Amino acid sequence: MAGVGAAVVLRAYCGTIRARGRPAMSPDQVPAALVITMWEQYGSGMTDVADRVGRQLSLPVTGQAFSSEDLEAQEEAEERNGGFLDRLAAVLGAVPSGLSAAKAADVNEREGFEQLVADNRALVLSMAAQGGIILGHDATKILAGRPNTLHVKFVGPVEERVARAAADRGIGTERARRRQEREDRVRVEMADRFNRWDPRGTDYWDLIVNTTTLGTDGAADLVVRAAGRIRG
Asked: 129 vs 28, 30, 61, 70, CA distance in Å?
């Protein structure tokens, strides 16, 4: 994706959301199908755990909106053109009659950002209505207080996470370290910018799992047991 412009990234993301999603429902209309939301510190093995839990509970897994490769590919553009979050929220369009180019750009950016947030919320509510495991997407904040929902965060010491990511992804340690530094920062910034929450704390989580201690299978077993209690 190197060299792909911000508008292309945003339009592709919004297109994915619209292809997946259904119209948003109010919280009291959402059926109480089992939902597990997940978030991780980079290199904690969330995807592997989610796949195992999904197989054990027969739940579909929806991946994160932006992969490590997506974020990595945009790093050079971030340095050239400003913050990554600003480019994600920017929408390029025609200048409406009577507006200056600068003011029109501000209007387009704000409207594009608001549409992105609304589309993501609609997608999360649609997935929740069907039940499943949702990685990222600010689903933990959006579905806070929803019945039959388990919110899980995966953590671990930095060095162990970097080593695991390097081994799992087949990349060098230094590249894994750069990804860790980038993603542990950017994913928190996106959470704050898009839905005004901080996933680093404990307020939103039912379960915080150190995967370097428990391993993938142990973490998956713990999540399955916790989901059983939520269901019960």
From this structure: 11, 5, 14, 28
Average pLDDT over every residue of 55-72: 91
- Taking alpha carbons only, the member of 78, 74, 50 closest to residue 64 is 50
Identify which of 157, 183, 130, 153 has the alpha carbon closest to the alpha carbon of residue 49.
153
Walk me through the domains of the chain, giving residue ranges and CATH numbers: 6-231 (3.40.50.300)
Q: Give residue 115's pLDDT band: very low, low, confident or very high (50, 70, 90).
A: confident
Question: Please, is 178 exposed, middle or buried when counting C-beta atoms within 10 Å of its C-beta (0-12, 13-18, 19+)?
Answer: middle
Q: What is the mean pLDDT of residues 209-224?
A: 96
Give the CA angle between residues 65, 70, 75 to the nearest 5°: 130
87: number of Cβ within 10 Å: 18
Q: What is the pLDDT of residues 122-137, one digit of tens each?
A: 999 999 999 999 999 9
Whether 67 has a pLDDT exceeding 90, the answer reads no
> Do the beta carbons of residue 156 and residue 212 sit within 8 Å?
yes
Helix residue ranges per DSSP H, the chain: 6-20, 46-57, 68-73, 75-81, 84-88, 101-130, 139-142, 158-169, 173-195, 211-231
Q: What is the pTM assigned to this prediction?
A: 0.75
Neighbour tally for 42: CB within 10 Å: 25
Place of tokens 């750069």: 178
Q: What Cα–Cα distance (Å) separates residue 188 from each residue in 7, 170, 184, 197?
A: 22, 25, 7, 8
